[in-house]
Design brief:
The protein is mainly alpha-helical and 186 residues long. The chain has eight helices and no strands.
C-alpha cells in the first residue's frame, strides 16, 4: 500500500552527480547569430518564404526543447541547428509530394503549350540505347550531366579530340534515329 502512496518521480527529474551539467545552448544568442542564415537556407530549399519562416521557427522550438542534449564538443550550434532544419525541410518536401494540388481553370495548362512530347523522350532513350558504350558515355557526360570535355578527359583518360568526335557522331546518329521515328508516324 505504501508503494501506491509514494509519488512517482520521473527518472530525469533528479540529476545524479554523474550526469552532465545543463547545456550551454542559448536560444536567443543562436537566433541572433544563425537565424538569417537558416532562413536563407530554408527559402532556397523550399522556394516559399512563409514555409521557410515556419521551418526556422520550428527549428528553434525543437532546439529549445532539446537544449539539454546539445553537446558543443560534438558540433557547433550552427551545425546542430542546420541538422535540425535540414530534417524539417525534408519533412516539408515529402509532405508536398503527398498533398494533392487543386488547379483552377485559370491555372490549368493550355493544351496548345509547347510541352515536350513524352514520346520524344522515349525516342531519345531508345536512340541512346542504340549507341556504342563509348559514344553513349561521352554524350551523357557532356550533354546530360553538363561536364566539360576536359573534365571527362581527365576522369576517363580519353583525349579531348576523341571525345569531341564521339559526341559529334553520337549526336548525328541520335538525330537520324529521331528523324526516322518522325517519318514512320505519318
Amino acid at each position: 500500500m505504501t508503494a501506491l502512496l509514494t509519488p512517482h518521480r520521473h527518472p530525469t527529474a533528479e540529476r545524479s552527480p554523474m550526469t552532465a551539467p545543463p547545456s550551454s545552448f542559448d536560444v536567443d544568442e543562436a537566433f541572433a547569430e544563425h537565424g538569417s542564415a537558416l532562413l536563407g537556407f530554408a527559402v532556397n530549399a523550399l522556394g516559399d518564404r512563409g514555409q521557410a519562416e515556419d521551418c526556422v521557427q520550428e527549428t528553434f522550438l525543437r532546439a529549445w526543447r532539446a537544449r539539454d542534449r546539445f553537446d558543443p564538443t560534438r558540433a557547433s550550434a550552427r551545425t546542430w541547428l542546420f541538422a535540425i532544419e535540414r530534417r524539417l525541410i525534408i519533412d516539408v518536401l515529402r509532405a508536398r509530394q503527398r498533398t494533392p494540388h487543386l488547379v483552377t481553370p485559370d491555372d490549368a495548362p493550355d493544351a496548345s503549350t509547347n510541352e515536350p512530347d513524352p514520346l520524344d523522350r522515349l525516342g531519345l532513350v531508345e536512340g541512346l540505347a542504340r549507341l556504342s558504350d563509348e559514344h553513349r558515355a561521352a554524350v551523357v557526360a557532356v550533354h546530360l550531366r553538363g561536364r566539360t570535355y576536359r573534365d571527362v578527359s581527365e576522369s576517363t583518360g580519353v583525349p579531348v579530340a576523341t571525345l569531341r568526335t564521339r559526341v559529334h557522331y553520337a549526336l548525328r546518329a541520335l538525330r537520324t534515329h529521331l528523324d526516322e521515328g518522325d517519318t514512320t508516324d505519318d
